[in-house]
């Protein structure tokens, strides 16, 4: 029984470390999202999903939405957008 309880504690610690990185003092912070054109913004200690405006991608180095040619999307999902519609 003791061993089972230990596993539960470890599992909870992992979930907390993954889900709640936002500073509890409300400090503004940004995290990359699984999708390249989205990011998380910390608001009052909670993660909120934001989407980059236009066709910008989130650049985690500068914590800003940046031009796609500046951003490395490796390991993240490429947004599905029809660029042909955007011809000006
Ligand atoms: C963020 O942008 C800078 C310059 O615009 C670029 O050098 C850097 O590789 C970018 N980082 C990512 C993670 O895309
Ligand atoms: C992009 O990021 C991946 C994973 O972090 C890395 O392996 C790759 O070298 C990077 N590519 C460029 C062009 O920076």
Automatic annotation (TrEMBL):
One of its GO terms (molecular function) is chitin binding. Residues 1-19 form the signal peptide. Residues 22-75 form the Chitin-binding type-2 domain. Keywords: Chitin-binding, Disulfide bond, Glycoprotein, Repeat, Signal. One of its GO terms (cellular component) is extracellular region. SMART domains: ChtBD2 (SM00494). It comes from the Eukaryota. Coiled coil: none annotated. InterPro entries: Chitin-bd_dom, Chitin-bd_dom_sf, Chitin_bind-dev_reg. This is Chitin-binding type-2 domain-containing protein.
């Amino acid at each position: 029984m003791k061993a089972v309880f230990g596993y539960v504690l470890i599992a909870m610690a992992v979930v907390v470390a993954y889900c709640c990185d936002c500073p509890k003092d409300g400090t503004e912070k940004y995290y990359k999202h699984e999708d390249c054109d989205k990011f998380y913004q910390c608001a009052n200690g909670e993660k909120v999903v934001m989407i980059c405006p236009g066709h910008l991608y989130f650049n985690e180095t500068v914590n800003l939405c940046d031009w796609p040619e500046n951003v490395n999307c490796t390991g993240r999902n490429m947004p599905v957008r029809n660029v042909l519609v955007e011809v000006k």
